[in-house]
Amino acid sequence: MQRENPPFGGLLGVPPEKIKRVFISPGPIYDSFGGESYSRLAKIFYAAGFREHDVVLNTFSYHLVPAGLIMDEVLGIIGAMVLPTGVGNTELQVQIMKDLKVTGYVGTPSFLMTLITKAENLGYDFRRDFSMKTAFLAAEMLPQSLRDTFQNDYGINNSQAYGIADLGLLAYECSEKSGMHIPEEVIIEIVDPDTGKQLGPGEIGEVLVTPIEETHPLIRFSTGDLSLYTDEPCPCGRTSSRLVRIAGRVGESVKVRGMFVHPRELEGALSKFSQVANYQAIVNRVGVRDDLTLKLELAGGDVDKQKLSEDVLRSVSAACRVKFDRVEFVSAGRVPKDRKAILDERTWD
Is residue 247 domain-shared with residue 262, that is, in the same domain? Predict the structure, then answer.
C-alpha cells in the first residue's frame, strides 16, 4: 500500500506535519506514531512497577525501530532517569549499573541474563552489589524458569508485555502475572487465520488489533501472531480481557532476539551470491540466547569458503538487522527442496 500511495499508504488520520515520530520496519514500512500511544504506554510501565526517580537501563535499539526511543520517552513521562545503552558493551554496562545504582531494566530477557552473568564473571554478587529491582521484558519469549531465576535468585520483579513495531505495546502484565491485560485504548480480537471468524476464550488464533487513536487509525490490523485470551476476572481488580500467551506465528517470518527475520530479506541478501545453490536459516536456543545458523549448499566449483562465509554473514546480517552467528556449509541435498527458509527449532519450558 505504501508503494502505491507513498509514503504512508493513505492510512494517516492527521496531516503529516502532526506526526510525532516515524519509525522504519523491514520492507521498508514507515510507521507513524502520535501522542496517543505514549499516554497508553505510560500506564503500562506504571503497572510494571516503574516510578519517579527510578534509574533505568534501556537496552532496546534506538535506530530505525521504535522500541528504544518510545520506551525512553514513556519512562520520561513517569519521571524516571533513562540510560540509553542499547545492547553490547556488557562490561561497561555492568560498571554503569553499579556506579549509577540502576534500579530498573528495559529490554529482552536474554540480554538481562547476559548482563547478570557478566557481572558474576567479574566477581560481583549481583543481588548484594547491585540495586536492580524491576525489569520490563519484551520482544522475546520469557520461559517460566528464567522468570523464576530473575525473581528468586536475583530479587528482580519482572513483567512482560506484548507489542508490535507498527502499533507499540498492546497488552501488559499486572502484579498477578496471570496473563497480559488489553488496554482500553485498544481492541484485540482472536480469529481463525483462515476464515477470519472470531474465536472464544481459550482458542488459539491470530491477533487482530484496532487501536483507538487518530494518528494511525487502523481497523483489524493483522499482526501475524498467534495467541489466546481469557475473560476470567483477574485478582488485581482490572476488568479487561487478557492474552494468556503468545503461541507462535502465522506464516514464515520468525522473531529472533527481538527482531523479525523475513524470508524475502534473506532471499534478497543471498541472491547476490551465485556460489549459493540452496540455503536455510536455523534458529535454536543456546542457554538464554537465540542462536542463528545459516546452512548453505554450494553450486559447485572452487570456492574460498572463508571469504564467502564472511561476505555472506555481513550481507544477511545487514539485510535482516540481526547478527547471524555462523555459516555452515552442507553437502548437496542436505537442505530439503521444500524447506522453510527459516526453521525455528527453539523450545520453551
Answer: no
